[in-house]
């Protein structure tokens, strides 16, 4: 799985999450298949899996992306790419 795949899914999850928080419908584009993972991804160490399962917002869980607080993880992924 490429970092670009995770970033794309993270972006859609974040858009849906923000829409939910603001009481709006999620963007239609975020429902396209390319915005969903086929295997779960846990953005954390092996001991954080349970915490990530509990903390990931629904918009991310349904995409199989378990990331905890959404915005912080996106910046961590981007930072890893520039190293």
Outline the structure in words.
Helices cover 52% and strands 5% of the residues. The mean pLDDT is 84. The chain has helices spanning 3-21, 49-55, 58-61, 70-82, and strands spanning 41-42, 65-66. With 83 residues, the chain is mainly alpha-helical. Helix 1 runs antiparallel to helix 4 (70-82). It has a two-stranded parallel ribbon with strand order 1-2.
Biggest sheet record: 2 strands, parallel
Distance between the termini: 18 Å
Mean pLDDT: 84
Instruction: Tell me the overall shape.
Output: globular
Give the helix/strand class. mainly alpha
Which short descriptors sum up this protein?
mainly alpha; 2 strands; 83 residues
Which SSEs are present, and which pair or pack?
Elements lengths: L2 H19 L19 E2 L6 H7 L2 H4 L3 E2 L3 H13 L1
Parallel strand pairs: 1-2
Helix pairs in contact: 1-4
